[in-house]
Specification:
The complex is a heterodimer. By secondary structure, chain A is mainly alpha-helical. Chain A has a single domain, classed as Orthogonal Bundle (ABC transporter involved in vitamin B12 uptake, BtuC), CATH 1.10.3470. Chain A is built from eleven helices and four strands. Chain A has helices spanning 2-37, 44-61, 66-89, 97-119, 146-168, 170-180, 182-187, 192-217, 227-240, 245-265, 271-285; strands at residues 124-125, 135-137, 142-144, 220-221. In chain A, the strands form two sheets. Chain A has a two-stranded antiparallel ribbon with strand order 1-4. Chain A has a two-stranded antiparallel ribbon with strand order 2-3. In chain A, helix 1 runs antiparallel to helix 10, helix 2 (44-61) packs antiparallel against helix 3 and helix 6 packs across helix 8. In chain B, 46% of the residues lie in helices and 18% in strands. Chain B folds into two domains: 52-169 and 312-390, Response regulator (Rossmann fold, 3-Layer(aba) Sandwich); 172-301, Response regulator (Rossmann fold). A seven-stranded mixed sheet of chain B has the order 7-6-8-9-10-14-15, sandwiched between helices. Chain B has a five-stranded parallel sheet with strand order 2-1-3-4-5, with helices on both faces. Chain B has helices spanning 2-44, 68-87, 107-120, 131-144, 171-184, 200-215, 235-243, 255-267, 310-322, 330-349, 357-368, and strands spanning 54-61, 95-102, 124-127, 147-150, 164-166, 190-196, 219-226, 248-251, 273-276, 298-300, 373-375, 378-383, 389-390, 395-399, 402-405. Chain B has eleven helices and 15 strands. The chains are: A mainly alpha, B alpha/beta. The interface between A and B is large, with 39 and 36 residues.
Chain lengths: 299, 407
C-alpha cells in the first residue's frame, strides 16, 4: 500500500514539474522583458496562443512535419514579438509605465480577437508534436507521459543555455548593462533599442517553444488558451523574483508542483486559491520574490 | 482653434460610425427575413394576405464560442421543423416566423439576445440551449410571462417557474438514469467521477448520480472536481481514478474538457470505460480530435441518428441534405421536437397570434400538462406543471467514429 502511495506521489511530482517547466519557459519572457524594458508585457501569453495556431496550421491543416511546424512557429513568433515591440511599445519608451501597461493589454486583446476572426471560436484539438511513447515503470503503477519526459530536460537545457548566453556573449552582457542602468549603457556604446528588440525576440521565440510543449500536453487550442497560462507564468515570475532568470525557473516549477500537489492532496477545486494564497504569503515575507534582491543584476 | 475643429470632426465621425453600425445591424436580418417571408408566402398560399398574423417564435443559444455545436444544431433543426410546419399550412392556419440569436453560452449575452428578440416581436421562446444562460433568461420570461420551452437546458432551475418547460431530461434525471443504466447493464462496480464544480449542469448530474449510485450498489471510488479556471490539467484526477481502481469514469461534463481527459488518460495508458451525458454529444465534431480516443465512450442520450424508425430517418436525411452531410446530434432532435411541442400546445390551447404574450403563455402552459407528444427523442412525452418531461433514457456508444445505438 505504501509503495502505491509513493508511486502516485512521484507521478504527481513529475506532472507538477512538467507543468511548472512550461510555466518557467513562459515566465522567462515576462522576466527578461521586465528586467530590461521595465514593462509588463501582458501580450506574452497570447504570443503562445499564436504559436499554437501556427503549429496547428502547419501540422494539421497543411499536414507537414511537426518539427518544421515548431521551427516556423519560432521564426514567426520572434518576428511577431519584434513587430509588437516596434509598433506598440517603442514609441512609448518615455511614456509613463501605466500607458505601456494599457497598451500591452490592448495588444493582448488584439491578438485574441484576430485569432478569433481567423480561426473561429470553436476549440481545436492539437496533435502532440512529441512522438515519445509513455514510459511505464514499476509494473505499470508508474506511467510517465512522453510530453513530461521531453518537457523537463528541454526546460533545463533552455535555462542553462540562456544563462550562459547572458553571462558570456556580448549581446547578453549588453542586456545586463541596460537592465542595470540604461543611460550609462548608452554612454558605454550599447544600442538600447537593439538590445530591447533582441530581448523581445528571445522571449517570443521561447513562447513558441512553450506553446509546442504546452499544447502537446493540454490539447485544447482556442483564442483564449494563452491567457490563463500567461497569468500563471506572470505569477511565477513575481514569485521567483521578477527580473531574475533563475528566479523565473524556480518560481515556475514551484508553482506547477504546488498546483498539482494541492490538487492531489488537498482539493481539486481549491488548487488555484492555494497557489495564490502561497504567493501572497511569500510576497508578505519577501516582497521582492524568492530570488529577488533590492539591487541585483536584472535580465 | 484647430484642436477644437479637430475634436468636433472626431465627435461627428464617431456619431456617424455608430449610426452606421446601428443601421446595418438592424437592416441586415430584417431584409433577410422579409425575403424569406415573401418566399414562404408565395410558396404556401398566393392568395393569403402578406400581413396575416403569424406566431413569432424566438430561439436563443450559442452559435459561436465553446458550446457552439449545440446552438448550431438547435438552430438548424428548429428551422427544418418550422419550414415543415409552414409548408403544411402552419399552426391552426397561422404561419410561423422564426429567428435565432447567439448567446455565446453567456448569461449576460443571453439576456441581450432575449431583449433583441422581444423587440423583434417574439411571442414564444424556444430556448435557451444551455443551462447557465437559461437561468438568466428565465427571470426575464417569468417577469414578462412569456412561454419558454428549452430544448436542452437541463438544469432543473431553468424550469423553476410555471411558464417554463423542458424537452430534455433535467440534470438530476440524467444523473439518476446514468446510475441506473450502469447498474442494469452491469458496466462497473467501481466508478470514478470527474465533474466541473463551477457549472450547475455538471454538479447537478453528479449529485443525483452519487445519490442513486448508493441505491444501485455502485461504489464511487473517486469524485474529482475541476473549475472553469483549471480545466486544462486533468492528470491528478485521472491518476486518482486509476489509483483507486475505477473500472468506469463518469464524465457529466461538456465535450471540450472531455477531449482533454481522453487525451491525457491515453497519455498514461489508462483505459477505463468512459460514460457521459448529453454534454459529451459533439465530441466527434471537435476539429482535429483523434476520434479513436473516444472509441467505446458511452453517452446517455435520448437520440441516436442511426435509429431505424421512419421519423428519425427522414429528419436525419433532411438535416444532412440541408447542412453538407452533417449528422444531427441530440440537440438537433430536441429542438425539432421543441417546435412540434409548441405546435401541439398551441393547437390544444387554441391561442392565436393576436393575443397578448401573457395570454398566449397562460393558454399554453395549461395545455402542456394535457398533451402527449411522439417525438424523435421519445414516444409519448408528457409534462407535469413542474416543467419536467417524462420519457425513457437511452444510450449511444461511439464506434468507428460514429454514434451508434447501444441498446
Amino acid at each position: 500500500m505504501l509503495a502505491g502511495v509513493d508511486m502516485s506521489f512521484i507521478t504527481y511530482l513529475l506532472n507538477g514539474i512538467s507543468l511548472g517547466s512550461v510555466y518557467s519557459i513562459i515566465a522567462l519572457g515576462y522576466t527578461m522583458v521586465y528586467g530590461i524594458a521595465k514593462m509588463l508585457n501582458f501580450a506574452h501569453g497570447d504570443v503562445i496562443m499564436v504559436g499554437g495556431y501556427i503549429i496547428f496550421t502547419i501540422m494539421s491543416t497543411l499536414g507537414l512535419n511537426p518539427i518544421l511546424g515548431v521551427l516556423i512557429a519560432i521564426i514567426l513568433c520572434t518576428l511577431l514579438g519584434m513587430t509588437i515591440e516596434r509598433i506598440a511599445y517603442k514609441p512609448l519608451r518615455r511614456a509613463p509605465s501605466l500607458a505601456v501597461l494599457i497598451t500591452a493589454i490592448g495588444v493582448s486583446y488584439l491578438l485574441q480577437n484576430l485569432a478569433l476572426l481567423i480561426f473561429g471560436a470553436e476549440a481545436k484539438s492539437f496533435t502532440s508534436v512529441i512522438p515519445v511513447k509513455p514510459l511505464s515503470l514499476a509494473g505499470g503503477r508508474l506511467s510517465i507521459s512522453g510530453e513530461t519526459l521531453v518537457t523537463i530536460p528541454l526546460c533545463i537545457l533552455i535555462m542553462t543555455s540562456l544563462t550562459i548566453f547572458i553571462k558570456k556573449s556580448k549581446i547578453g552582457r549588453g542586456m545586463v548593462a541596460v537592465s542595470e542602468d540604461k543611460d550609462a549603457a548608452v554612454l558605454m556604446g550599447i544600442n538600447v533599442n537593439k538590445t530591447i528588440a533582441i530581448t523581445f525576440a528571445i522571449g517570443s521565440a521561447l513562447a513558441a517553444v512553450a506553446s509546442a510543449l504546452m499544447f502537446s500536453t493540454y490539447t485544447n487550442l482556442s483564442s483564449t488558451s494563452g491567457a490563463m497560462p500567461g497569468i500563471k507564468a506572470f505569477v511565477a515570475a513575481v514569485f521567483g523574483g521578477i527580473g531574475s532568470i533563475p528566479g523565473a525557473m524556480i518560481g515556475g516549477i514551484l508553482l506547477g508542483v504546488i498546483e498539482i500537489l494541492s490538487r492531489a492532496y488537498i482539493s481539486t477545486q481549491l488548487a488555484d486559491a492555494i497557489v495564490f494564497l502561497i504567493l501572497i504569503i511569500v510576497l508578505l515575507v519577501k516582497p521582492t520574490g524568492i530570488l529577488g534582491k533590492k539591487i541585483q543584476e536584472k535580465v | 482653434m484647430k484642436k477644437r475643429i479637430f475634436a468636433l470632426l472626431m465627435v461627428l465621425s464617431m456619431i456617424m460610425l455608430s449610426l452606421a453600425a446601428c443601421g446595418s445591424k438592424e437592416e441586415k436580418p430584417d431584409d433577410g427575413k422579409k425575403d424569406q417571408k415573401e418566399q414562404v408566402n408565395d410558396k404556401v398560399d398566393d392568395k393569403k394576405d402578406t400581413d396575416a398574423p403569424k406566431f413569432y417564435i424566438g430561439g436563443i443559444g450559442p452559435i459561436t464560442g465553446g458550446a457552439a455545436v449545440y446552438g448550431q444544431h438547435v438552430m438548424n433543426a428548429a428551422k427544418i421543423a418550422v419550414d415543415e410546419i409552414n409548408a403544411a399550412g402552419g399552426i391552426n392556419g397561422y404561419q410561423i416566423e422564426f429567428r435565432f440569436e447567439d448567446d455565446v453560452h453567456d448569461p449576460e449575452k443571453a439576456v441581450n439576445a432575449y431583449n433583441t428578440l422581444k423587440d423583434w416581436g417574439m411571442q414564444i421562446l424556444m430556448g435557451t440551449v444551455t443551462s447557465n444562460p437559461g437561468n438568466a433568461v428565465k427571470e426575464e420570461t417569468y417577469a414578462d410571462n412569456m412561454f419558454m420551452l428549452t430544448p436542452s437546458g437541463s438544469a432543473p432551475e431553468v424550469v423553476q417557474y410555471d411558464n417554463a418547460f423542458q424537452v430534455c431530461f433535467s440534470d438530476p434525471n440524467q444523473g439518476m438514469a446514468s446510475a441506473i443504466y450502469v447498474a442494469n447493464k452491469n458496466l462497473a462496480k467501481k466508478v470514478a467521477v470527474i465533474y466541473n464544480s463551477s457549472d450547475v449542469y455538471s454538479t447537478g448530474i453528479y449529485e443525483k448520480f452519487a445519490e442513486e449510485a448508493k441505491n444501485q450498489n455502485i461504489e464511487i471510488v473517486a469524485a474529482e472536481a475541476f473549475t472553469d479556471d483549471s480545466d486544462t490539467d486533468f492528470t491528478v484526477q485521472i491518476q486518482k481514478a486509476k489509483d483507486n481502481g475505477a473500472e468506469l469514469v463518469f464524465l457529466p461534463i461538456y465535450y471540450e474538457e472531455a477531449t482533454l481527459i481522453l487525451t491525457q488518460a491515453a497519455a498514461v495508458d489508462y483505459k477505463p470505460l468512459f460514460f457521459g451525458c448529453d454534454g459529451l454529444d459533439g465530441i466527434l465534431g471537435v476539429e482535429n480530435f483523434d476520434t479513436s480516443l473516444a472509441e467505446g465512450v458511452l453517452l446517455l442520450t435520448p437520440f441516436a441518428a442511426d435509429a431505424a424508425d421512419e421519423r428519425t430517418q427522414k429528419f436525419v436525411a433532411d438535416y444532412k441534405a440541408a447542412h453538407d452531410g452533417t449528422i444531427p446530434n441530440q440537440f438537433a432532435a430536441d429542438a425539432y421536437d421543441a417546435i412540434y411541442i409548441i405546435k401541439a400546445a398551441i393547437e390544444e390551447s387554441g391561442v392565436t397570434p393576436d393575443m397578448s404574450i401573457s395570454d398566449i403563455c397562460d393558454g399554453m402552459k395549461e395545455a402542456m400538462t394535457k398533451i402527449s407528444v411522439d417525438g424523435l427523442t421519445g414516444a409519448g412525452m408528457t409534462w407535469t406543471s413542474s416543467g419536467l418531461v417524462n420519457k425513457d433514457p437511452m444510450a449511444v456508444v461511439i464506434k468507428d467514429g460514429q454514434y451508434v445505438s447501444a441498446d
